Amino acid sequence: MSKLIIIESPFKAPAIESYLGKDYKVLATKGHIRDLPRSTLGVDVDNGFKPKYITIQGKSDTISQLKKEAKNAEAVYFATDPDREGEAISWHIAYVLGLEPEKCLRVSFNEITKSIVQSEIKKPRPIDMSLVDAQQARRVLDRIVGYKLSPYLWKTIKSGLSAGRVQSVVTRLIVDRDNEINSFVPKEYWTVEADLKVGSRTKITAKYYGSEAKRELTSKEMADEIIEDCNNGKFEIASLVTSTKSKSPAPPFTTSTLQQEASRRLGYHSSRIMKIAQGLYEGVNVGSANGGTHGLITYMRTDSLRVSDEASQLAKKYIVDRFGKSYYPPKPRVFKSKSSAQDAHEAIRPTNVELTPEIVKEHLTTDQYKLYKLIWERFVASQMKNAEFEITEATFKCSKHIFKSSASNAIFDGYLAVYNDSDDEESSGKLSKITKDDEVKCEGVTGTQKFTEPPARYTEGSLVKVMEEKGIGRPSTYAQTISTIIDRGYVVLEKKLFKSTPLGVATVDLMKKNFPKIVDYKFTANVETSLDEIASGNESFENVLSGFYGDFSNTLKDAQEHLKENKVKIPDEESDIVCDKCGRKMVIKTGKYGKFAACPGFPECQNIKSLDDSKAKKTTAKTEPEQTDLKCEKCGSPLLIRSSRYGKFYACSSFPKCRYTKAIREEIDVPCPKCGGKVLKGKGKHNAVFYSCENYPKCDFSMWDLPTNKTCPNCGSMLALKQAKNVLCCTNKECGYKEEQN
To answer: Which of 239, 293, 525, 642 would staple 471 via disulfide (CB 3.0–4.6 Å)?
Structure first.
């Protein structure tokens, strides 16, 4: 009889089976197998908040197969993902198999490598019911808020809206930032700079500091007074101070910092980052010479900064061998995690530091390579010696006015040899070449008017950072939460910056007025702390839920009694389109067939315009080809951009001598479900739109329906939109899940 190992993702199965041999069989659940029903609340709020789980549609065959294999197995191991969600899935599987949690063989693989899998399979433990209860509490809390609040929003704002315990607070973050920007009053200030020639050749720009103390310049008159004094005055070096500064490397990535850095450096959305990281964790075939198929990184959902002793020692060996002993610190680095961190896992790191990005590059997609390189470099740098800088600060004096200039020069690169995160500017030794006795000649003093600027809109990276700082949600849920508030129309992402919509503003204002706790930052953070207490066994599932529900229920009852006075009219979004009938600025409205521009003078003026470019009248006018800097892959001649009825394409400028062409395909913001690469939109015969992976033919993903970032609640596969019917369908043909869109 073989031993059965139950996991979530089928992509891990080949690697795990190869590590454990023929005595083990691996089956995947493809996500949850039981959940709360979609049609009802599914929670008995009067009897300890007991959840009423049902089998997820399409999972019956999976459950039947699990029961059959478990019955004939010598032992059953539950190896779902190593987090609360994975613990709960193991508990649900145990339930349908009729097994007691305390008698189950639960194993966790923090990395899918031979040594870890073989080691952990020998150390099974019971299912941790504290972790299960923490997951259940989160699920029940979110269900109560969603199912109780959403109907209230339907009645007060518009039908089809949804409320969420975390998504409402994140929407508020963006609305509050927009309010700060809109109410910001800029203040004038001035900077004064002196262009100085020190000694025979050195030219330095020094900034005005003040007199005896630092002084802010708030008017042109103040700046002009300094300029007049200094243009006619004599400059001299008052002081020249040189010091050294040591800069430590950043710790290895957590889920949050990975999303922030990959968003900033690579421009990827959170959902795309996590999808790529999932593939790197589950396993990639990097060639027989590099060990075949195995996970390249440790588990990617973690807020711990811990690094195992084994990984630390392997990093030390690599650093010393590659860079020399001078690049390794006197003792291994230990980074302290936040007190709220779940320390069950390590930080995100490469499973084998010897597998450098360049070694595995040919086996990875472009996106996988970029993310793996980022993770590998950050980890190796985190184990290296500090970078050393020489800081020189020169103080110049002219009459009573003080000017300062500083420069930083790297004297030992340390960890910067691997991971350059330094914002220090090198000065090419300008200040280090001067002495206090050098003559100073002023070549001009100028003033510049400036104004204070409002706070910046959130990028995806900065939004994740503030969510972590305020304790809103968990790192594993950041990507899904951000996707949800965009899908619901509460916010939009314009040029990689978040902006609230009129719908988002109206919803947050209503929630602040009637459900202040739900959108309160501290209250939301306290809920997360309570869930952590359940996970650690210090608090009970029922106590946390009853403490929340009593106040929430009373607040909801009071809000429903004042339903009429709380109704909200969403203001129309003004556009730059001018009505060609009456001259008013048209507003954006949403109808059955999408957005359109309408005249605000209705019913006096009933002019409307479609905003769908695909419905715009096609022109047959011949356009001149666009020039590019690209070269033809066949003959090396410059490529031109031409247009046809199928869209724009690249064409060789030496046509007809060279007939090379290449379609220009639009990138959509969805990662390939097979390899994590970019999904591109193209057109085939009869102008039919299709979607396929940028890495074709290496990756054969393609489909006619529009891929989305949403996952099937039944099997975890990608959902795709059948645009003609406006129905989301599971891409796993065996599942059959469908979801009609409003």
So the answer is: 525
